[in-house]
Amino acid sequence: MELTSWLALAAICVMGAISPGPSLALIIRNTVQGGRGHGVATALGHGLGVGIYALITALGLAILITQTPLLFDLIRYGGAAFLAWLGVKALLARPASGESGSEEGHPPRGRQGAFEGFMVAFLNPQLAIFFIALFSQFVHADTGWREGGIMMLTAGGIDALWYVLVALVLSRGPVLAWLKAKSTVIDKVSGLVLLGLALKVVI
């Protein structure tokens, strides 16, 4: 892939990553509830999900998803169910404690955050549509694993770096302290956003 083409691809991926949506709501909530490590793990899991979708699309498999209604619907409804589950979980969450959010007594939390981030990305069929529209400008007949890997690392890496940055900024002392004080409001708003997005996916 030529440098100019890669720069154009990277610029569009940046714009896609910073667009607000369920991913941002999840990163904010997990950072407030679990601290820096939980938020970063969620960001990395989300980046992995985005990267895998990018690779699938680059190799032409995402076209199969969009042209096979049953498979597409399974992914769409699975994603909606997972978003709804996260929304209900946020609405029922207890207020965040005033502790520092250390991962030390909660070893599974990082894995949980990574899993949630991955699933929010991977069960989002709109990613397939987005990447098909985007990669149609860059994929050609002889696109193979090498260029597909470049697209995967570009899309997934940019996504992960952006959300890691968000988690790190939110986990700084004064910012996190303020967010913890407002954690109940954040949970309710995040839960409603996630439920709304789940409903939108179904409709």
TrEMBL record:
Q: Which domain of life is it from?
A: Bacteria
The listed locations are: Cell membrane
- The principal localisation class reads membrane
Q: Which InterPro entries match?
A: LeuE-type (IPR001123)
Its keywords, alphabetically, are: Cell membrane, Membrane, Transmembrane, Transmembrane helix
How this chain sits in the membrane, per its record, is: Multi-pass membrane protein
Q: Looking at the keywords, is Transmembrane helix present?
A: yes
Question: Transmembrane residues, as ranges?
Answer: 41-65, 117-139, 160-179
Protein name according to UniProt: LysE family translocator
